[in-house]
Amino acid sequence: MLTNPIYFDHASSTPVHPEVLKSLSELSAVHYANSESLHEAGLTIQTMMRKSREAIASLLGVLATDITFTSGATESNNILIKGIAFAYQHKGKHLITTSVEHSSVLESFQDLEKFFGFEVTYLPVDNEGRIKSEDLKKALRNDTTLVSIMAVNNETGTIMPIQECAQIIHSYSQAIFHVDGVQALGKIDLNLSTIDCASFSAHKINGVKGSGIIVKKKNVQCHPLITGGSQEEGLRPGTPNAIHHILFAKTLRLALNQDKSWIRSIKSYLVDEFNQMDGIVINSPMNGCSDYILNISCLKVPSQIMLNWLNQHRIYVSAMATCLNRDAQPSHVLEVMGFEGNRLNGVIRISIGYTNTMEEAKTLISIIKEGIVKYGRD
Amino acid sequence: MAEIKTDRILVRFGELSNKGKNRNLFVRQLIQNLKYQLSNYPDIRYRNQFDRIMIELNGADSDEVLERARHVFGIRSLSPVVVTPMDFELINEASLELMKQEKVGTFKVDTNRKDKTLNFKSNDLNLSVAKTILSQTEHRVDVHNPDIRIRIDVDAEKASIAVKTVLGAQGFPIGVGGKALLLLSGGIDSPVAGYYTMKRGVEIECIHFAAPPYTTIQALDKVKQLAEKLCVYQPRIKLHVVPFTEIQLEIYKKAHPAYTVVLMRRAMMKIAERVMHENKMLALVSGESLGQVASQTLQSMASIQDAMDGLILRPLLTFDKNDIIDVAKKINTYETSILPYEDCCTIFSVTNPITKPKLKIVLLEEAKCELDELIDVAYKSIETTEIRYHQETYL
Known about the structure:
The structure holds 2 protein chains of 2 kinds. Chain A is α/β, with parallel strands linked by helices. Chain A is built from 12 helices and 12 strands. In chain A, helix 3 runs parallel beside helix 4. Chain A starts with 5 loop residues before the first strand and ends with a helix. By secondary structure, chain B is α/β, with parallel strands linked by helices. Chain B has 2 domains: 8-170, VC0802-like (2-Layer Sandwich); 179-388, HUPs (Rossmann fold). Helices cover 38% and strands 22% of the residues of chain B. Chain B is built from 14 helices and 15 strands. In chain B, strands 1, 2, 3, 4, 5, 6, 7, 8 and 9 form a 9-stranded mixed β-sheet that branches. The two termini of chain B are 36 Å apart. In chain B, 42% of the residues are buried. At the A-B interface, helix 1, helix 2 and helix 7 of A face helix 6 of B.
């Protein structure tokens, strides 16, 4: 008989919160009209979207007019990075990001380099995966128009010094500061008052897929990537996925109210166990790391084998960012952190969520132990 | 050390402190309004301590409660209060933590012993707390004109420490001044007029004149949104929506174009007057400001007012437009007011309205129209909804 799957891949996606699911089915059953239609049915949906927008803004400490609904963080990142680079290109064509960003950020910058003649500085990281503020300061130039730094790394959980970066960017340049906040939302404190714009996603915080937001302050210019309508103030035209957007507010409220001590206790159990385990090293930093992500390397078993072994036991984890899994290349994040050989080839990312139990954590540990015994090669 | 948690919120009165015999009435109303505004938090308790009210949070989130209570009229200021056991060490520690969160400046410690049999003097505690703060922060002491007054109330068992002070909404508790009917158009001025009226303790209901199908449901929704914004101050607001189309058509068909605006306003007054009396309200409130548009000259106002018996309040009469806009932004109605939906006035606007109408001519023009029955029908067709401040289930 099959046991229930054990899901430790919450940085990839999360189960939908039952209360969100309930609202989803209630709203979907009734509200099918186009939120842009001028009749009562459309107005009702638009009103709900407005209230959701207001609620999100108040939870994030920004203005309702700062919020744009998108299809997810990949879209948010693309719109903001490319759109801002285009809007300010008369002021300069130099951009800065880090070498450990999510692929939706990195590839946006690579496109700008390759097809539009921008120059991009990719900041290096230390062996904890963190950029140094001096490097940022040195990289800033008169013609730098945009700096994009993720708040929490999706592979290692490393927390970036966002407030420090904001201070440096605003003191030494005119550049716009963008933050990819996907892995930070509802998980660490993120003060948006010093940040010009940010990207977030619902399905990483127990919301529905196909729903993300942009937070963009009024003074930030951004040229839309898609044109053809006035929806979302023209920044993201096209009929909005209204019901999903409406649910973002509830998703966020529930995420912010979650008791985080539970996550912390599971992580600290896992850390203790791995520390004592032969052939395992922890890649996530001990300090300044998200409680939700634990990145380890199995020195004696390559990732792919360990992943398959765990999968046989219906335990689901990732080797690196899920968006890159299929490339079968070693993780660029761990690589720039300076890791190589077995440490790079044996990477496993365990990401914790509210549905996890201590029992599951114990099973995970014992199956990994078993896997090392069975398939370990020195 | 353990996280400092706010246990209570201290509420200081505004102008009602000097209201003599009416004082109890005022305080009772204020507590009732607070309870209503904070009805989402059933565990909160309220203690009337003569010159102030103590809100006991019992687990409610202090930031959220503070944010709500900050908009309740009749409150001069609010302070989060931390309660510790009566122990110098713990009091020092808590005061220090609270001061670390404040902007560096000057302070003074004010201890108040409710129980004078305690085995120390108030000043002993003052000194002890001040020393702790001086040695571990950049704050300085100024006993005459401090930026921050640390208030410590002690009895044999516990101490309550208040450091931060948040400005309240001032004015009088809504309800002590009776009820009035606000003419809510959807523009910038009328919500501001409503705000000032509520601030003086007057409860409001709203009346809006709609001209469907010339006006859209979006325009009406905008009015509802504005009423909803005012719910921050008064959690339930009745909105009376008057179908006004037939009256307007009659006026535009028969009266001289220059007089249509005045006549329309007179018809509105007649209907509003009936709603006002029917619902035992004492005045109409209008967002008119002298000279702003043709219908807001003294001559026009006189001609319009003539149509009704009763008091019309014009809180913005002498305001400049820019000052009104500033307040509209402050009370968060501006962005909604400028949404581009036409109201019944703009749809039927004429190019040359008369700015100094003579009443005699106004009445002659009015006599050309057959309005009485239409006004009666419009009055009877009023739709009343209650706009409330509430949490939607989908949020």
